[in-house]
Specification:
- It contains 15 helices and 11 strands.
- With 419 residues, the chain is an alpha+beta fold.
- Helix 2 (101-128) packs antiparallel against helix 3, helix 5 crosses helix 13 (319-329) and helix 6 crosses helix 10.
- The chain is globular and about 80 Å long.
- Pfam families: DUF3391, HD_5.
- Residues 147-341 form the HD-GYP domain.
């Protein structure tokens, strides 16, 4: 049984289930825990959160005479029906309405359009050395995590479409979405999912202090330029030091270029000495970087990126977290060009909840006659489907310029939003 009460009525031994308020308005990394110490209780009493949900099945109950709202998660109902019309259920008891890929791509395109100026302004503030306007960032994180909750494949696929000159801003948006999806796959609670998303959004903030000539150089960096580029993680950490940001988010900014074998920077940390959020950020950062067009190179196909990262995960990336990441985006991520057993080409339009090897694909080309065919969607995981993927293909080897339009009905609009 869950009960909602004022924080002043909390006592040691109660199990805190959820804060009623902004996920960043309280001083705890965890959003669910047993209140064990007077210090924890004092923090709760002094914080800005006024009400919380407690779980009386895991901790002490509310004393008699204390006014509280009672919710039964087994029946998804309030014990007092009179309260049900105006009181919010705890988030874990709410079932987020899922949406189709097509529906969520529409929402994701609108979200990208709103996010671009917000991120541009954030980086401009960082460059100027003034205070950072963080509340719009929090709202953006909420919108991104809500989109991931409705359909994790839409936004994480859409954010791969970037204009080169807007790479830095939109890379942060992409890593934010991937972090939210990965955290959700790992089974983290809502509070932790948002912390992960915030880490992704802010991880490259230090690039605001790097010369635009270096950031957008149309070729590989020389040793001097690369040494300057490597300072961005520490510079971002320093920018966030003066902000009321969770230390784990700041550490993700500082350590996301550390590598499991100790070969990274800035402090050559290794293994689990690298904080969890930083290890997650490293994976999401690398995936978006290698699949995106950069000033000096074209991005590789999503499926090829997964193959390369599988090799790197043996020494550079956290292998277990990478396995969870593959389950998040799929072995054949949305947008991948694949060859089918029937010698036809198709583009992946949605990951499967059943099998990583059997996504939904849109078939559009017959290889042997070398001609386009009427498009149709196949669910390779369907029991009556005998078709399967043989391999992924490099789009550069084929004369197609409309692959993005094939996998998303709203990609044309999305590209305009990302431009």
């Amino acid at each position: 049984m869950l009960k909602r009460l004022n924080v002043q009525h909390l006592s040691q031994g109660m199990y805190l289930h959820e804060f009623c308020g902004s996920w960043l308005a309280h001083p705890f990394w965890r959003s669910r825990f047993l209140i064990k110490t007077p210090e924890e209780l004092a923090k709760l009493h002094k914080g800005s959160i006024q009400e919380v949900w407690i779980d009386v099945r895991k901790g002490a109950d509310v004393p008699p005479g204390i006014d509280c709202l009672v919710y039964d998660p087994d029946t998804a109902s309030f014990v007092d029906p009179a309260h049900s019309g105006h009181s919010q259920r705890p988030r874990s008891a709410r079932s987020a309405r899922s949406s189709s890929m097509e529906e969520e791509l529409q929402r994701a395109a609108d979200l990208c359009q709103r996010a671009h100026p917000a991120l541009s302004q954030l980086f401009a503030q960082a460059r100027d050395g003034g205070g950072l306007d963080i509340p719009p960032v929090y709202r953006l994180v909420e919108d991104i995590t809500d989109s991931i909750e409705r359909n994790p494949g839409a936004l994480t696929s859409l954010v791969r479409l970037k204009e080169i000159d807007q790479y830095t801003y939109l890379h942060c948006l992409a890593v934010c979405a991937l972090m939210a999806a990965l955290a959700r796959r790992l089974g983290l609670d809502d509070h932790s999912v948002r912390k992960a998303a915030l880490a992704g959004l802010l991880h490259d903030l230090g690039k605001a202090a790097i010369s635009q000539d270096i950031l957008h150089k149309p070729g590989p960096l020389d040793d001097y330029e690369f040494a300057i580029m490597r300072t961005h993680s520490a510079k971002g950490w320093q920018m966030l030091q003066v902000m009321d940001i969770d230390p784990a988010v700041r550490d993700a900014c500082l350590y996301h270029h550390e590598r499991i074998d100790g070969s990274g920077y800035p402090h050559q940390l290794a293994g689990e000495n690298i904080p969890l959020l930083a290890r997650m950020t490293a994976i999401c950062d690398v995936y978006d970087a290698v699949t995106s067009n950069r000033p000096y190179t074209r991005g590789c196909p999503p499926a090829e990126a997964i193959r390369r990262m599988a090799q790197w995960s043996r020494t550079q990336l956290d292998h277990k977290l990478f396995q969870a990441f593959v389950q998040t985006v799929g072995i054949y991520p949305v947008g991948s060009l694949v060859r089918l057993q029937s010698q036809r080409l198709a583009v992946v339009v949605e990951a499967s909840q059943v099998s990583l090897l059997a996504p939904r694909v849109k078939v559009f080309y017959a290889i042997r006659p070398q001609q386009r065919i009427p498009t149709h969607v196949l669910d390779l995981a369907a029991p009556d489907c005998s078709e399967r993927i043989v391999t992924h293909e490099d789009p550069a080897n084929w004369p197609f310029d409309d692959l993005d339009a094939l996998w998303g009905g709203h990609v044309a609009r999305a590209e305009a939003a990302l431009a």
